[in-house]
Each structure stands twice: as C-alpha cells, then as structure tokens.
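Components:
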Amino acid sequence: VKNYRLKPPQIIISAFLILLIALSYILHMDLVVLLNQSMVKLVMNGVLVLSLIPMLNVGAGMNFGLPVGIIGGLVGMCLAVNFRMTGFYGFFMSILFTLMICTLLGWIYGLILNRVKGREEIAGTFIGFSFIPLMNYFWTLAPFQNREMLYPIGGQGLRPKISLENYFNHILDNFGLISIGNIEIPVGLIFVYAIICLFLYLYFRTKIGRATIAVGENEAFAKLSGINISQTRLIAIIISTIIAGFGICIYAQSYGFIQLYDEPLSMAFPAVSAILIGGSTGKKTFIFEAILGTYLLQSMYLLSVPIANEILVPELTEILRSFITYGIILYALLVRERRGINS
Amino acid sequence: LRIKEEASRLLDSEYMVPAIFIILSYFAWQFSGLTGSFVFNQVVTRFIRDGILVLSLIIPVVAGMGLNFAITVGAMAIQTALLIVIGYQVEGIKGILLAIIIGVFLSLVLGYVIGRILNRVKGKEMITTIIIGFLFNSIYQLIFLVGFGTVIPVANKEIILTRGIGVRNTVDLGMYRNTIDKLGLFKIGELEIPLFMIIVVLLFAAIIFYILHTRFGQEVKAVGSDRQTSEILGINTNMIRIKVMILSTILAAFGQLAYLQNIGMFDVYTAHMNADIISCAALLAGGASIKKAKIRHALMGIFLFHTLFIVSPQAGQNLFNNAALGEYFRSFVAYGTIALALIINIKNENKFS
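Structure:
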C-alpha cells in the first residue's frame, strides 16, 4: 500500500460516485439506507472479487473462467438444500461441499491452464463458457429429490431460481447485525469477509505464497531458484477456484436465491472490472485493491439504479454497468501490455 | 508412447474436427427424425445467412491475429446504418444502397480503431476482441435505447418505443425482406436452392481468395507467419494489421446485411449478439485452427456446424423427451469447439517455443 498511486479509472469512478451522491441528495433519497446496502453489497460481491487475486499474482491473468468456481459453489449449495440442511448447519455444509467440489474442479482447471501458459485469459473464457451448457445437463438430469428445488410441473430438473427462504437465506447478513440509529452494520458478514482477506494475506506470507508471487513476477527467475512452476500455479488456481465457490455461496445467501443455468455466464466480467478499478493492472494485486474496487463499483451501481429510474430510462443502469465493466477491462489490457514491452 | 504420439498426431490433423462433426450430425440427424430435404433446405438457408460472416474471419487468422470476435462490431455498424436509413424512411433499393454506404464507412472507421487497439496488445488479440465486442455492444445500446428520441431526433416514429425514447426491440425490414433471396430460386423436388445468394457468398469467397493472392495478401501471410522477420524485410506490420481489421469489419458488415435481409425481421438489440461465437465455431468445425484458415474450411464448416445445429434440438426432444437438452448441446458444441481449438493450438505453440 506504500507506493499506492491513484490511477485514471479510479479518479473517474470516484468523481462519478461523488456526482451520484450529490444527485441522490438533490433527489431526496435515503442515504442511510443506501449506506447500509452498500456494506452488504461489498461482501456479497467482494468474495468473488477476492478469488481473482491468487491467479493474478501467479501470473495466470484475469480469471475469466470464474464460472468454473461459481458452478462448484452452486453444486455445493444444491447438495445442502437437497438434504434439507437449514440454518447455520446448512450454510456450513454448503461451504464444506463447495470446498471438496471446487478443489477437484480447480485441480482439473489448473491442469488445463498449465498447458496454455501465457494465454490463460482467452482459454479460461471459453472453458467457462463451455462448462455452463455442460452443467445445464447436470441441473436437468441429476437426481435431486427436494421438491422445492425441482420444476413444479413434471418434477424433472432444477428450477433456474431456487429460493433459500427455508434454508439459509440472509444467514450471514443477519448474523451479529448491529444497529446504531438507522445505520445497520452487518458485523457477522464483514467478519467472514475479513477472515477470507486474512487467509489470503497469510497465504502470501507463507513459503508457497512467496513462491506464488515470485512465479508471477518473473517465471524464468523463479524456475532458476528451484521453484516448481507448474505446482505453484496449480495451487494458486485451486485456491482461486475454492474462494470463487465460497463467493457464490455468500452471494446467494445475501440474494436469497441460488441461480442456476446460464446465470454464471455474465458473472466473471463484473468481478474482474471491480479488481481493476481498485488499481490492479492485471498483474500483482493487493487485497486492499480488491476491497476498494468492489466498494467503489458496488456503491456506484447501488446509487445509479434509483437515479436512472427517476430520469425515466431504467435500462440506463444496466447499459452503464456493462459499459464501465468492459471499458475498464479494455483499458487494463492496453495498459498492461504497454508496460510489458517497456519493462 | 507410440500410441500417444499417434493419438496427438490424429488430434492435430485438419480432418479430425470435421470428421467428429460429420459423425455427430449423422447420429443426431438419425435420432431427430427430420427429413433429409428439410435439413438440406435449412442448411442452405444458414449457408447464405452466415456464409459471409464466417468468411470475414479468415483474413485475421491468416495475419496471425487469431479469431476475430469483434466481427460483431461490423454487424453493429450495418445495423446502425439500417436504423438510420429506416429512421429517415429511405425506401427500396435506394435505401439498401445508402445503408451499405453508411455501413461500410462506419466499419472502416471502427475497423481502424480496432486495428489500432490490437496493435497495442500483440499476442492477446483474441481476448481483446471479445472485450471490444462487448464494449461496443453497450455503446450501441446506449445510442439506440437511450440516445434515440432524446439527443438524436428521429423522423420515423414507428420504430420508437411508445415512451418516446429508444428504438423498439424488433424493427420490420418488410421493405427489404427477401428481395435478393428470391432471385434465381431453383427447385428440385423438395429442395430449394437460392442460386443468386449462393453465388453472392461464393463471390465473397472469391474476393477473399483474390485478396490473399495479391501483393497485400502475401504481406499478410508474412506478418502472420513471422512478425519480426517481416518487419526486418521492410513490411509495415502495424499498418498491415490495421488494414486486415478494416477488411474483416467491412466483410462482417456485409455478412450481417445478408443475414438480416434473409430473416426480414431485425432484433435491434440481439441480432448481432452471437454472430461471433457461431461464426468462429463454424470456421473451426471446417478444420481451421487459430493459426490457419482457408476458404474451404469456412465453406465446409458452415455446412457441418449448422447441420448439427439444426438437428440437435429435435434429437434432444426425441432422446430425452426434453428439447432444452438439445439446446444445451448446441451451445456446448459452439463454445466447446472454440475452447478445444484454443487449448490444443496454444498447447502446441508452447511446445515448439
């Protein structure tokens, strides 16, 4: 964090955010409610963003194959719901199932990515894209028993949106919720987020974590110092995949639904853009940058919805969202490659 | 070890992917229970619809820039041109010509911009073109969903949503529908062959063949096979790459025009969305790779890919009693073909370097 410098995208987003806050103040919106929501949104999306860090730091680029980890998490939650595990027990078991499934998926994903070294981003994009229709078979054909998850008619195949109402809806959101006046601080939720941040921080302090950063910074040099490149990359990719799985579990408990089928298709790009707004350039990334980026981006989205509704074009938020998402990714691609040539 | 070598050679062979597609389509066709003539007519329709779009991918591959997922930008350029022409109610052949002129001009400018961007991300062209496609899609939506009726005045109120802002989701191309398809329509029994449009697609193939055999084409090939050497030989590689992107974008614009006039309806916000994925998968199905693409790959690929595309929903319905499964199979084939081609190609590239 020492030599942290503001970069153009952050300045633009911050200016935009200030403008939105001013606008919402003029339009007499309830800023306290928005502040409360912004904290939930930070963690809801933040863990998915954190999951990108190990892969960025090992030099495997922006993980556009995020759907792989997300699907692992979805399977984990579906299993827990299928066995009717409720409350904390249900959420804990989803996390446990996710851990097992994502370790396996991450291992396979890592083996593939190790073969396409240097071009992980494009390969990951299409691995993610093609994994989704493949898993649609699973959602349709797997023998899940719980009627609450299946299509009401026919009884075959999972619903696209499974309600968590009777299971672990808002389990972390409401855990240790502290109210100060109108301000509600979801302490439990933020605590879980902090644990994951701390885990990542400690991971990069260990021997294998230092090796991860070394591989990301200079692969040839790392090889000379006797680091097993493939193995280090594999571990980083597995950790990324596992955290992505946790991320979707936390996302789903906040959102209240498990979203299956084509839903993970569009989740990778916003997560990547968040970390880039935080100041990452698609290479070595600090945890702080992921948190900052997620908070800036999510608060901005949060503010822009009611404002766009106020000015009568509701589609504007969605368009603006994708414009910012892809604009920032393109910017990062351009900046990173230019630096690559100079250094 | 011998078997492994043998297997990897087989996997690299140009005929491997087409062979898989032939086998898969044959079985899917058998299970679908569709008549041969129906499938044939459908495939021919797809051939004239998507042919030029697939062909537009060839030159960037030859130039070593990989699959150009940004052909959606060319598609959006011609759609913009069409909306402008419809907005000002220019009808008939005059309208089409005007749309082509505007579309080509827009593609030229956008192709130049894309070329400039890609020159800064050498080696990462494909991921960049995907992002460019998505980015331009949001700009396109911004213009037509928000800009039309607010900032940009529109004369033709029929294409605007009732709230007065934004273009409708579907715009009728009634005045241009199937004007060209019906030219020279042959019928042999139940088979319908729109001869004129087939000739148009083949004409575009011939143009690309010609371009690749001119001096410019030779330079493109040189840049594609070895950029450093061609730079030393005095070829302005950056300029060549920009020209390649301009050409590809313009061809894509023509491709989308052929597509839209065949369908006759125009889904303003979705018509261009999957043009890139389907065209790339079709090209790869014909045996092309991300390093090598020939015109025969494109022409054969469209037939193979779309045969599977047409029969698989019905086959899914008959096999599993669930049409959605065939639908998933379709998207899996489209994305999976590209994923597999990428993995195999990059792996080989890494092995040799």
